Amino acid sequence: MKLSASFLLFLSFFVSFLSAIRADTKSTDSCSSNEAVSSLIPFYSSSFHCLSAWSSQGFVLRYARTDTNKWSYVLSAPDTNAYVGIGFSHDGHMEESSAMVGWFDSSSKGVIKQYYLGDMESSACPPDQGNLTLVKNSTLIAMHSSTIYLAFEVITNQPTPYLIYAVGHPGDLPSSNYYLDEHHDRATAKFDANSGIINGADSSSGFTKARKHSLLVILGWGLLIPIGAMVARYFRSHDHPHWFYGHVSIQMVGFALGLAGIVIGFDLDSSGVEHYDTHKALGIVVLILGWLQAMALLARPVNTNKLRKYWNLLHHNIGRLAIGFGIANIFLGLSIADEKKSWYIAYGVCLGAWIVAAAWLETRYWMKSGD
């Protein structure tokens, strides 16, 4: 029953964590809420096609061919105090494409501009330039219920076959020269404007590779490994070995998830990322400590062996170091990724619950020891 209780505790942490981090993927707009769009955008009508363009960031795209060579677009996205943009590309790459980007500044003034995307560098993406022929006086940006709406009309016989979406870092808005800093996240989608079919912007989970890395490491090193350590310390029984099998099983699953997250992390683009080397080094240290713990199982002396107390000392302290470094590196990684507050809150709540549970069990442990 004790092990069952610990598993239920983990499941409650897991569900709470996923619920919290998924909350930031929900859009405040949807294709079923067109009334607000009609009141905000003069050229919008019910004949517009509507689709979920980039669900992980809550982007919704409405568009229509409103004349022989005129296409009208309305892009909506949750307001995160960052710029949002939609680009038009012939080959799916950002370079040499054009984009419409908008944001609301600190004075709540809306800004929408066309950009030519010459390269990844900010200086190569000048404002008020690009290959889109915009209908005069058709571009506008609006805000409603914490949702940003970018609207514009383009003169073209046929839109480009690829769309590029981007969102800036929260709180990092363009300065007075309107040059854009590097995006926080982006996606590319193959787009057939005639059929309304869009593919490629979303994975099945709605997570980027960086978020998959974060989620796996948090579940493995940040939740399962600490819970497994708790099982070994507080549910130990000399009469029944169930605690041991539970401890080993939880740690093996935690190690596997953490390892998978680290493997994904090595494949992430680190260019220009501050503190990346520190984060990577700590990750390697945690991996080595975890590997030592796994190998220690093979060299575990029997209880009667005089070396057992030294083995216990090393095993316990290496485990504590792995957990401590792992938790610290998780918060460093969230900072590097500039994740939303919901990730900090979700993991902080889970970690806080684990600390409270460990403190209560530790108190009981010492009270029983004193009996």
From TrEMBL:
Domain of life per record: Eukaryota
Gene Ontology cellular-component annotations: membrane
Ranges of residues in domain DOMON: 57-168
Gene3D superfamilies in alphabetical order: 1.20.120.1770
Signal peptide: 1-23
Pfam family, one: DOMON
Transmembrane domains' residue ranges: 213-232, 244-266, 278-298, 318-337, 343-361
UniProt feature coiled coil, ranges: none
Tagged with keyword Glycoprotein: no
PANTHER family reported in the protein's UniProt record: CYTOCHROME B561 AND DOMON DOMAIN-CONTAINING PROTEIN, OS01G0895300 PROTEIN
Protein name: Cytochrome b561 and DOMON domain-containing protein
